[in-house]
Amino acid sequence: MSATIEILPLAKKVKVRKKAFLSEALREADVPLSLYCQGRGVCGKCFIEVMDGKLPFFQPGEEELLKRAGLSPAHRLACQFVVESDLRLRIPERSLLGRVSVLEPAFEVQLSFDPVIKKYHVLLPRPEIATAEAELDILLQAIKSVPLRVALPVVQELPAVLNRSGRQVTAVVREGKELMTVEPGDTSAGVYGIAFDLGTTTLAAELVDLASGRTLGREARLNSQAAYGADVVSRISLAFEGPGRAAILRRAVLSDMNRIIRALAASAGLSPDLIQAVSVAGNTAMNHLLLGLPVDSLAVAPFNPVFSTLPDLPASELGLEIHPQGKVYIAPNIRSFVGGDTSAGLAASGFSEGRTTALYLDLGTNGEIVLRKGGKLWATSTAAGPAFEGMNISCGMLALPGAIYKVEADLNGFRCGTVDGAPAKGVCGTGLIDAASLSLERGLLTPQGQVTTASRTIPLTGSLALTQKDIRELQLAAGAVKAGIRMMLEANGLKAGDLEEVMIAGAFGSYLSVEHSIRLGLLPEVEPRLVRFLGNASLAGAKAFLVSFPSRKKAEETAAKIEHFSLASRPAFQEVFVSSLEFRTWK
Amino acid sequence: MSATIEILPLAKKVKVRKKAFLSEALREADVPLSLYCQGRGVCGKCFIEVMDGKLPFFQPGEEELLKRAGLSPAHRLACQFVVESDLRLRIPERSLLGRVSVLEPAFEVQLSFDPVIKKYHVLLPRPEIATAEAELDILLQAIKSVPLRVALPVVQELPAVLNRSGRQVTAVVREGKELMTVEPGDTSAGVYGIAFDLGTTTLAAELVDLASGRTLGREARLNSQAAYGADVVSRISLAFEGPGRAAILRRAVLSDMNRIIRALAASAGLSPDLIQAVSVAGNTAMNHLLLGLPVDSLAVAPFNPVFSTLPDLPASELGLEIHPQGKVYIAPNIRSFVGGDTSAGLAASGFSEGRTTALYLDLGTNGEIVLRKGGKLWATSTAAGPAFEGMNISCGMLALPGAIYKVEADLNGFRCGTVDGAPAKGVCGTGLIDAASLSLERGLLTPQGQVTTASRTIPLTGSLALTQKDIRELQLAAGAVKAGIRMMLEANGLKAGDLEEVMIAGAFGSYLSVEHSIRLGLLPEVEPRLVRFLGNASLAGAKAFLVSFPSRKKAEETAAKIEHFSLASRPAFQEVFVSSLEFRTWK
User: Fold this and answer.
1) Residues 515-544, chain A, touching B (beta carbon < 8 A)
2) CA distance linking residue B428 with residue B511, whole number of Å
3) A147 lies in which domain range?
4) How many domains does chain B have?
5) A60 belongs to a structural domain
6) Per-residue pLDDT tens for A41-75?
7) Residue B307 falls within a domain, yes or no?
8) What share of chain B is helix, strand, coil (3-state, %, to 5)?
9) Percent helix, percent strand, percent coil in chain A, to nearest 5
10) A53 inside domain
11) Is the same domain home to B203 and B317?
């Protein structure tokens, strides 16, 4: 009792048992069908065209969806179609599952488009006197949903919304578990979220269209907490002084985030309360401070955090000014010093799923290092300080227009490239690394970090120059990263040459010179083709948590299974660190 | 590969496959074991004593639970015990599943004790530097729980609670889904809830100990909304006038409920914020007004409610002054005029599960009528007015001390029994029915309701007497109920004589005289032994929703499947109603 299904334009043929749903048959044939509403026949996204074979009657609501989609009467929803006979089908492009790439520039990792918030536009039947069903039940039946969590104000306003809209409404459902709100009319195109990378030094964010997976805008600003200390440790120390101080830090970053929310909404011409989901990838200290959690335990042994994974929190409880029922997801922490920024980056890059021996590095104020070997993962963190982000450097700056991001050798000295080609105003992390490496090569700098020029400075361009102190900052930053990588490789019986892949996330983007980094010893000596730049992988992961809901579960599983490689508990660390301060290629 | 298990003191023998958990084996043997923590080995409530057979090693945490319980070393947790060989066991009384009866006076329906909020007392291990696990994860592992929803303040306070208590804490878990709070020390004995019967005229409530299922106290007070109209229709009309009026009604009943909460807590010597769960059984209009939902649709065709089933709501959102994370469950509405009071009563009485042909009547300001036939249920409602509660009767009163609740024939007239034997102050519903029936018998009253005495009053005792208007009120109330029952029976091809059971819930308690009710035509003519009095079944159902969590699901299923028998949509109703106004036994 089977039927043959020929699938165009894929030129595939499959045999399926009769009475099966066509959507199941297509899944077996590996056709990536869009099943936005999980096959409930509500979203109208899986229409297929019947070219040859018996056309079934419409299921309730199906014809309405078909008309709304503007397709011919030969279309049917695959999820409602019971196979009775042989068929020849065409799958329209619009019915294929969307894939999204969250990394920029495009990386080959593609996630299935399955946003955390979904909207269903429905026309509700009028209640009849004989059945007199409850309005909320009529709505749930229309979206074929199980009972959902729902906040009281949504129920209170439901009758008025139905009245105002002639019962044409859009139900907004979060994670298939909560009826967030019911909007009058068809608002299914307008679902928005904001992904945050909550860095110690910089906040970056993207406004994401959850109906399409596209990024609509980007914003970045310095973390105002920086006024209270450049690195994580100084912030924790301040918070340590009392709850009042922690509250100051909390308010500072909340105010930054709310400014970013307003700015992103304004440039897209949206009201901020159209934003219904936020995700935040930040290191453990940053997310603890944001949530108002005590950070004491992050600073003293055994250095454990208060939480690793948390369910979505109400934005209103947190203090973020978005939709009143909006929710905030915090990327899971791996440990105290390997936080949600890393779990987000691992999710975006697919690093946790690979099988080769590989390193994942996120070089910011903290250097996070993840080693993968034989399918197992180890993570650690090392305090690099803000030098890589251009901070604590006399002429340092973020990679903004005018920042020297690239230094090349020139007959007369250095040739400096600036962001946007603007007049040079300062140097950012990648420029600093280039300059130091070239100085080392030219003898302006010893491997021990001594500036050998008469002026005790390394001139870059115009009046910009690096000082002896600047070099020391870089030395400490690079040494910390190098020591972490070295200890982790050694503990697992690995040498630099065993690495098959090195992924680099972080503010550097793809501007980091692999050659210069290897020369300074910041990176282990590997073939440059093995090094891949992810850009801001934390931000990409935060976006993944909005547009591809299953990536949250994956990140939580990764965070739970990853081994913690504690540098702090290893007596050898200080020694390895000191021996890593020299600028020299790894042996 | 099986083993034989002999169970004392039940003198049962069962064969089970080896490697099975003992708890499974005992379930197959129908031993009602207490599995409060669902077999996770956390609660220590399923210890059995091994009399003969191999004693296994302790599982992690098991020895600590054993010591805490003060049992001998021959005890093991049944849910952790893997059967390897033949055994002879003794099941201590304490390990049997508690059963609770929520009806008063004790009715044979027993519910399994499975409270909505459970507490787990645990000693948390200290985090170690090598693993540095998150505090929240350590807690969830100790209670062997999946990740739970948790509000931010609970996470914020977790480290301080752990510190203060030397890591001995009690986790409070709601419905196995939410970590409501973490309390220092062992507070597992102190879990409280309040069940409300939210009547149109009266509010009744019980303080329930969720650790034992016992009722600790009762309170009742008049619904302050009564000042704005005695019946549901007048309240709806007022709310109709504008949101301001609806808000007045809402505040009135909230204030009543908060007074009751404070009173119940005070008499038990508890702080109100120890109350973590509330359940409310009220008719549809009452629960809509309480929740601030529009009641317009309850008053105009098609008379449909806004909701039938709602998930738990935060008490703080609703305005109830209990624990800050406390939740409120609203008994599901069946339809507009058959509400949560009825679904609660059906749950408490087990009426929805019976198989005989039966009637369930809840006679209050509204008369709810449920018919059961062949396993199917039909429900309707009829507006009786407040006469049965002693309201709108010239000398009427609630069944409080001094109320004439019983009238018997006497040579010289009537002999009146009062509540608590106090001097007569007025008459309540059951007294009114007795007096009218006896007056009919003696010719003081015609079947048409005419008072035939010279004074046009029916003297009761002292200066108390019923007026012609009082009799008219009773006539309307009884006629409405009679008409509803008549139409429902007729529509299903039934006669009074077909009824095998009549359950009567409501304020009457067991003081209603079946004989007098039949004589007046309020009840169909059935053998008195078929009539059973449930007392306040709505309140009992509200209690069931606290102490036996599965009863919520059952009530929701009943509410969804019950057929609505709409009197309003039947043209014959007015005629049947008018012909039901005569005081006479059903033919």
Assistant:
1) none
2) 10
3) 116-184
4) 3
5) yes
6) 888 889 999 999 999 999 888 998 999 889 999 99
7) yes
8) 35, 25, 40
9) 35, 25, 40
10) yes
11) yes
Are A305 and B568 a contacting pair at CB < 8 A? Answer: no
Chain A residue numbers touching B155 (CB-CB < 8 A): 291, 293, 306-307, 310
Predicted local distance difference test score (pLDDT) of residue B105 = 56
**Shared-domain flag, residues B57 and B158:** no
Measured in angstroms, the CA of B460 and the nearest CA of chain A are apart by 45
Of B147, B159, B303, nearest to A309 by CB-CB distance is B147
- Within a domain: residue A229? yes
Task: Report pLDDT digits (tens) over A501-542.
Answer: 999 998 787 789 999 999 999 999 999 999 999 988 999 999
Contact B136 A317 (CB under 8 A): no
Whether residue B305 sits in one domain with residue B205:
yes
pLDDT band per the 50, 70, 90 thresholds, residue B377: very high
| Residue B156: CATH number of its domain | 3.10.20.880
> pTM of the full predicted structure?
0.86
| DSSP string for residues in A79-107 | GG-B--S-EEEE--GGGBPPEE--SSS--
ipTM: 0.85
How do residues A325-353 score in pLDDT, each as one tens digit? 999 999 999 988 899 999 999 999 999 98
A531 membership: H or E segment, kind and range: strand A531-535
**CB-CB neighbors (< 8 A) of B158 in chain A:** 306
Least Cα separation, residue B312 to chain A (angstroms): 8
CB nearest to A294's CB, from B149, B159, B301: B159
* CATH number of the domain encompassing residue A90: 3.10.20.30
Does A71 lie in the same domain as A48?
yes
A145 to chain B, any CB pair closer than 8 A? The answer is no
Report the residue of chain B nearest A328, measured CA to CA.
B152
pLDDT band with cut points at 50, 70 and 90 for residue A108:
low
**Type of residue found at A64:** E
Which CATH number belongs to the domain containing residue A243 in this structure?
3.30.420.480
Domain final position from A287, A304, A330: A330
Residue A212 sits in the same domain as residue A310:
yes
Q: Which of A128, A154, A184 is the last residue of a domain?
A: A184
Helical axes B284-291 vs B243-267, angle rounded to 10°: 90
pLDDT, one tens digit per residue, over B111-149 is 888 999 999 999 999 998 888 899 999 999 999 888 899
Exposed/middle/buried for A435, CB within 10 Å: 0-12, 13-18, 19+? buried
B77, β-bridge pairs = B47
**Which residues, numbered 281 to 320 in chain B, qualify as contacts with chain A under a Cβ-Cβ cut-off of 8 Å?**
291-294, 296-297, 301-311, 313, 317-318
Which residue in A has a C-alpha nearest to residue B303's C-alpha?
A132
A156 CB neighbours in chain B (<8 A) are 291-294
Contact of B247 with chain A, judged by CB distance below 8 Å, is answered with: no
* Contact between chains at A156 and B292 (C-beta distance less than 8 A): yes
Do B230 and B265 sit in the same domain of this protein? Answer: yes
pLDDT of residue A107: 66
Given a contact cutoff of 8 angstroms between Cβ atoms, the answer to whether A500 and A357 are in contact is: yes
